[in-house]
């Protein structure tokens, strides 16, 4: 029995390893091509950082990167700040108004973003928010808000109400119970919501290409597409830009992964 169980574990491990290797092949190809000197780098070495030197010295990569980071981080901050209390109300509320709001969120969540892009473009053009990073951030917040609220509500559902009731008995207010009990135990949910919102904003191309016109306001996806149209044969530089776009999500996951933990909540009820 032990031998059969060990053999089954090795088969599963081998299958996971094989699938992971297949998934990482495109990433490896991007990294290798980014290190091979392109047409514009002027280097004759087999491998090197000439492409990265080229994209940071001759192309406004830092501007595009700063635009993407600014819009994305602002979207994450606003979305999480709104989704946390809204998810709390959705999780704990049992009124008709809350149920109607829940159904409305479900309906909005099912609509593709493209259905709202053109009406929003017309509206934003009248108030001067076209070709504006603030306007782009507003669209991102609206696009991610419904899913963010659902994610927070689903995680808050897993936090026992008895913890809040114990705080209320000790004299805590509703707001204090939310901030000191619910939010402190919702860190994995908050991080999941923040990462989802980060990826929605960071990877967006469709909304950005509609709302942005000036090169100095381009985000990285639009900047890469614009550079590729003009330098389609310079694969080394294009792949170097792709690596720059890959790095922030990788850093975010690597940094926040250790904070994901759902343990400790159930233990809080041990004495109740």
Coarse shape: globular
Number of domains: 2
SSE ordering: HHHHHHHHHHHH
Backbone CA Rg? 23 Å
Number of helices, where a helix is a run of at least 4 consecutive DSSP H or I residues:
12
Strand content: under 5%
First and last CA, distance: 41 Å
Mean pLDDT: 83
Given helix and strand content, the structural type is mainly alpha
Tell me the CATH architecture of the largest domain. Answer: Orthogonal Bundle
Strand elements, count: 0
The helicity comes to over 70%
Q: Any low-confidence stretches, pLDDT <50, length ≥5?
A: 261-272
CATH class bucket of the largest domain = Mainly Alpha
Fill in the CATH topology of the largest domain. MetI-like fold
> Describe the biggest sheet?
none
Describe the structure.
75% of the residues lie in helices and 0% in strands. It is mainly alpha-helical and 272 residues long.
Give a quick rundown of the structure:
The protein has helices spanning 2-35, 50-57, 61-92, 96-110, 114-127, 133-156, 161-169, 174-185, 187-202, 206-211, 220-230, 235-256. With 272 residues, it is mainly α. The protein folds into 2 domains: 25-58 and 220-260, no CATH class; 72-218, MetI-like (MetI-like fold, Orthogonal Bundle), CATH 1.10.3720.
Question: What is the secondary structure topology, with strand pairs?
Answer:
Layout: H1 2-35, H2 50-57, H3 61-92, H4 96-110, H5 114-127, H6 133-156, H7 161-169, H8 174-185, H9 187-202, H10 206-211, H11 220-230, H12 235-256
Helix pairs in contact: 1-12, 2-12, 3-6, 3-9, 4-6, 6-9, 7-8, 9-12, 11-12
